[in-house]
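Hello again, I could really use a second opinion on something today. For a while now I've been wondering how a particular protein folds. Please have a think about how the structure follows from the sequence. Here's the protein in full, and shout if anything looks odd to you:

***
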Amino acid sequence: PQVYLWDPESYKDSVNSYTLFRGIVIGIAGLLALFLTILFVVKGTSMFPATAALAWAVLAYICVDFGFLNKIIEISPGNEQMWRAGTEVALAATFVVFLFAYLNLNRWHGHFSYGALVWILGLLLIAGVAIIDPAVAAGIARISFAATALTGLGLIIFLGIRGYDRAIMLVPSWVMVLLWLCGSWMAITGMLDNDIAQPALGGGLILIILLIGFTVMQHAFAGGGAHQGLFSDLERQALAVAGSGDIVWDWDVLRDRVVTKPDVSLQLGLAPNSLGGAARNWLPVLHADDRDTFRTTLDVVLEHRRGRVAQNFR
């Protein structure tokens, strides 16, 4: 039997529209990956190669998903699933690398480095499984991507509450990641089964990379000063606390708030965080002979708006 199109011109217009959209998406992904790779040479920070690797993985995934890879290299029908599973594993692995590199998790605790290394090595093993059983490899890669997104959400909340500027700047991008995961889950389960679901998910993935790339460039070239927390450099403070074993005394002059890490109140037998807040809260617990010196020292710093405090107080 022969099949005739009821309205061939409308069908042709629809096909051309989807083809144009896919071409634009692939072009943007390729330019973004190339741009981030070039920026790594110029800037030299670890964020750029991690972001560029994620962008290249997204480009490979989009090319397979849109059927563009078949136009570049010859792929037999039986090997298409293997290529798709391989790109999904690469996407999941580079997502872990980006989260680790951008948040500098190795500076917060050594266990983060071991965890990320084991996670990435596990995904590399899954890449080998993609040759034997692509469906299993793709499923594990999707679970890994979702787990990384949820883990990243927890880390962003944890570090953002502590005023870490990188975590705060990553919030919009991570919201898009979570929305994209919800859309992907709805498409996989059949809740979204219309013609625009696949192109929309591909475009959403490119939008995520655009937001991540903008966030990385904004932080790298603006010095990461989008948010002023209690500590001027939380990474340096975390290294100091972990390496020296001393107590870090940090005074936010503009808001007149003092924070110690770890909390010195417990060592002095006081209520937890009782010495946090204004600097004057320290006066009652200081020795009577040292209170005037303490008050004078802080007044001099406030008056000259510079200086370095190197005093011993009882």
